[in-house]
Hints:
By secondary structure, this protein is an alpha/beta fold. 33% of the residues lie in helices and 14% in strands.
Amino acid sequence: MFGRKKVDVFRVLQLLLFLSNCVHGLAEKNVFNHGRTESGKNFTGRKMGYFWHVTDMFFDPYYSPLGAPEDDCHIKNSENFTRNCGFFGEFGQCSAFGLMETIARAMNATTRWKSTAPDFCIFTGNLRCPNIGDRQDDIYETISAFVTDIRNAGFVTIYPSYGWYDYQPHGHHPLKLTTHYERVKNLLRDERDSSNYCQKSLDHNPKVKQILGQPGPEIGYFSRVQPPENRIRVIVMNTNFYVRNHIASRRPDPARQWRWLIEELRACRIAGQKAFIVMSVPPGFDRKSYSEENLDKGKENLLVWSNGHNRRYLRIISKFRDVVAAQFAGHRHEDTFRLVYDRKGKAVSAVLLAPPMSPRFGNYPKIRIYMYDKHSGKLIDYVQYYFNLTKANQDADMTSPEKYWEVSYSFRDFYRLPDATTSSFEKLVKNFQSDNNVVFDRYHSNAEGRVNHKATCDYRCKLISLCVITSLEFGRFSECVSGKFAADQIRTRLSVQPLPKPLRDRLFRRFNPISASPTPPSVNYMDRTEDTRVQAFQTF
Length: 540
């Protein structure tokens, strides 16, 4: 009898172990790809890791559920009051405090198991709502609160990049060390690495130290080798300096960031590391600026960066293709990507743009988690989460709001691709070009991301979308949208016609060499000739 009890206890223990493994599998099923067999640490014999990507929060400290949507959800004595705003936010408004509080709790809820615990979190800019007048101290307090919340969620390392609206006045990021930069630098210091966090490499290799030399001015760009494997170097850039509307974009090397970036990538190559480049404003073109109703805005914002800086960045990425594992950005408020090609037309790297956390653009708030190889830096997959704002406001459950974060899609399952590397994104573009528009319609629906909006895209819309993805350099892009390479970029059942000449002239008037605009003319790569005003950008 006693022996039988021992057997029963043993069977009970076996059953408990089996159930524990089942629950563990279900947890990972929720995180990555709806139950694929690849679990936390082992994916075909490789050690896997995870990290979060959050961008474009646009937090409004004056948001109140007592306000009305027509008053930006601020408490005002309005005569046109219709209803109160939702506790967790409103579509078309900046983020509420209730929504901001759910981020850290959602990260904990979706990655509660040790095997899926994230290694770090990247943030690609724009914390404060741009529609309110802020002091510099207010912006710092918001950054401090965000960093504290993420650290309280168990993240030791946060890699934030400055967004266009993360300085006051907006877009006036200074080229010298200021009190704001110094305070943020001190805030981001890791206790284990002390002051080595910003602007200094954590390498102990004497060859690497010799190349890096003395760190430059601490003005919003830095790098860090991710421990404990020390195989991934996260390089955070301040790309606001290169935006066309920034006065620093007229300089050949604002804040010496180009020189620093090249030194960091060379150090990666010598140390046998891979680089993750994090930025807020990505290179290339803005797809949403192209419409006949919004043509004037499209003309002014045709190329986001200045022409010279845009070309220089693409050349650097092409030169260090063996080092750059992936690039991450935000600012564009859409779920999309960009492909960087070399001069032979081969895709060498991809820029992954994450959708915004804020519902300001009529979209569900979204955050993203990546799965990557800790040794090679290869991106295996990513899962997109969205916050069900409609249901959350209806239930008004403030005790466990993390349950309203739901899985939107897994990249591998959604597009039926093996991983999230550059080759997979290149294959995805080829799938876009097929006669069947099902895959592209899926992508376009995600890229728009607006609630109660049927995303329709005709052949010209598809052409421009593909040109924005594949043509980041102005000369290549102008040929793409003008119809010269339209047959190669997109094949539809309808005949693809080039953009009308009046429309094309209005779009590219800013780049006309005879124009009075201070923008340098475009480069003719076929003849390898360019204006002397942009020759300084070729000095790497």
